[in-house]
Amino acid sequence: MKAPPMASVPPVTDTAHPDRTEREARARWIVLVVDDEPEVHDITRLVLGDMSFAGIPVELHSAYSAAEAKALLERFPDTALMLLDVVMETDEAGLQLVTYVREQLHNPDLQIVLRTGQPGMAPEREVITGYDINGYALKTEMVAQKLRSILVSSLRAFRRLKELTRRSSGGPLAAPGVAASSRQRAFEEEFGEAVDAGTLHLLAQAQVHLGSGSIAAVELMPHWRRGDKWLGTAQLCEAIRDPELRLRFDEWLIRQGCAWAVAWRALDLPPFRVSLPVLTENIWDCRILTTIEQQVTQAAAPRGVLDLEVPETVMLGEYPRVEEAVRMMHALGLSVTLVDFGSGLLSLPQLQRLLPNQVKIHRSFVRHVVRDRERAAVARSIIALAQTLGLTVIADGVVSEQDLQFFKWEGCDIGQGDLLAKPTLVADVGAALLSAQGAPH
Fold first, then answer.
1. Closest CA to 369 of 392, 395, 344, 391
2. Are residues 205 and 70 in the same domain?
3. What's 195's domain CATH number?
4. Is-contact 36 64, C-beta < 8 A?
5. In terms of C-beta density within 10 A (0-12 exposed, 13-18 middle, 19 or more buried), how is residue 96 classed?
6. Considering the domain boundaries, does residue 41 fall inside one?
7. Which of 34, 56, 131, 169 has the fewest CB atoms within 10 Å of its CB?
């Protein structure tokens, strides 16, 4: 049974537009990627393209030379972060651009992080001491999680510098973060009202067994429409800071997951899991575990039907308590999927002790994998490691036949992506799957 075609999700992007007002133009974090390798731009967009910070979206701009970067910096003087290659049109083009920003543009606030694939041309010790930069990394170290961490820490530093500048100049910002905190509270209150009113949109996307083409799981994907923008799980995870509000959202999502799991089990369908992305960072919190137990019991959801998607960063929390929480979830009949896998932060002994049921390869290592040797090597390593530990592997973001064949050949168990099944409204999933039974794959 092949998963049916499903309706696409409205894009959650914030692109530059010449007709935007000045106020609208400020409502984004501008990140400039400067590198002469197109693949670097592609991967950066895959990882950071849908991110936000403090409820404000990230807007990526690309420059393929130092000259192009200068033009973009003049056009967008409020650029917050520049991810900068060293060797481009010349061996020192990147370093010369750093000097240009600091000494000619007199811009001390812009966060500059050097990314180099040739450390011999720009040794870290010499560059850090000789140039006014904010970070240094090798391209081979730029896994998804590290790239996200650099983004968040850089934007946080940029915001702090801007707030200090406004205070010292007698601007309207009376104390650090006052205006931002007010906006954050309003944002979270509005989201809380949407959760309580049940007005969030719930989409679903099938995960497909690559061997048989049958449905392995259906992932529920909450979306919140705020004005003319759609915020998905990744954006909400970045924007919602209040732990109580995160817990309320998770309670709502678990109720939804249990209800739909029971409803779909009542249909004449082969069994599959219902996968839920959680926002709660402290998954060992007794309240979330109690909520799971209560909802599973009340809904009489069969054992093994619910799956919780937990980011790798959450697994790195208070490790013994995380391990105990995973064991309790297993005891309740839930499976656990480690998502965004491939950042390299979890050690092998930790992974062996935690033993999630599934690992999901981050889409930055999945999309167009056949075009990039390093991406392919990472994907192969993850599959081999998971198979050694007896874990199921999910490739997230399959969009081409070539990539699908790659993961089939490498022995990946499950695939997820628009090529296999596009997202649809959750209410339409049952009918879509019923109509797809018996379809060739």
1. 395
2. no
3. 3.20.20.450
4. yes
5. middle
6. yes
7. 169
Report the first-to-last Cα separation within the chain, whole angstroms.
6
What is the token pair recorded at 164? 């200090």
Taking only the tens of pLDDT, the chain with its 441 residues reads 444 443 333 333 333 333 333 333 457 899 999 998 888 888 888 888 888 888 889 999 999 988 889 989 988 889 999 999 888 888 888 888 998 998 888 888 899 998 877 655 556 666 766 788 888 877 776 667 778 888 988 898 888 777 766 665 444 443 334 455 677 788 889 999 988 888 888 899 999 999 999 999 999 999 998 887 888 887 787 778 888 888 889 889 998 998 888 888 888 778 889 999 988 777 777 788 888 888 888 888 888 899 999 887 677 666 677 888 888 889 888 999 988 776 555 666 777 777 789 999 888 788 889 888 888 888 898 899 888 889 999 999 998 999 999 999 999 999 999 999 888 888 777 777 666 654 444
**Could you tell me if residue 6 is inside a domain?**
no
Both tokens assigned to 260: 């739909």
Are 334 and 403 part of one and the same domain? yes
Whether 14 maps to a domain, the answer reads: no
C-alpha–C-alpha distance, residues 189 and 398, integer Å: 36
Inside any domain, residue 13:
no
CA distance 232 to 364: 18
Residue environment code for 235-272, b if the CB has 16+ CB neighbours within 10 A, otherwise e: bbbbbbeeeebbbbbbbbbbbbbbbbbeebeeeebeeb
Based on the domain organization, do 245 and 150 belong to the same domain?
Answer: no
Range of the structural domain that residue 288 is part of: 183-436
Q: Are 317 and 281 in contact (CB under 8 A)?
A: yes
Q: List the one residue out of 413, 346, 399 whose CA is nearest residue 368.
A: 399
Here the tokens at position 72 are 């973009």
Q: Are residues 231 and 270 in the same domain?
A: yes
